[in-house]
Amino acid sequence: MSEIKPLKNVEVYSDGACSGNPGPGGWAAILCFGPHEKVLSGNMPHTTNNRMEVFAVISALGALKERCHVRVHSDSTYVVNAFQQGWLANWQRRGWKTSDGKPVENQDLWRLMAIVVKKHEVEFIKVPGHADCEENNRCDALARAEIDKFRKINPDAAPQT
Description:
Helices cover about 40% and strands about 30% of the residues. By secondary structure, the protein is α/β, with parallel strands linked by helices. Strands 3-2-1-4-5 form a 5-stranded mixed beta sheet.
């Protein structure tokens, strides 16, 4: 008989940023497990803030190597409400249409999110942006730094705003 191991508790902090919206964007996530921390970040050339917010969470959940209980801390109403208010489940039920029958924006990412979130027990927690949450502020700085990094490598790609 195999022993059932309890799930590890992981805290995830995530943020996305964009300059121009659309424009160059950056995302970041910090995964915390006990005394361990893993920082993930990246950038994309032509994107939106919402896409970066969603991508940060997908990246964090996808980085976990086993099923975990995850608390995702995000300042993105878009991300948090997709779960707390059941938007994602409703979009799926309606064939990826919004309540007014329009195609769901960022559907490609939401489809990925629907897959990765099933691999874990996930709780979404709304945190105020640019406020008291140190890890969220770190993610914001990392995401913005990714935009700067993209601009340094691609100075002609997009104007600064």
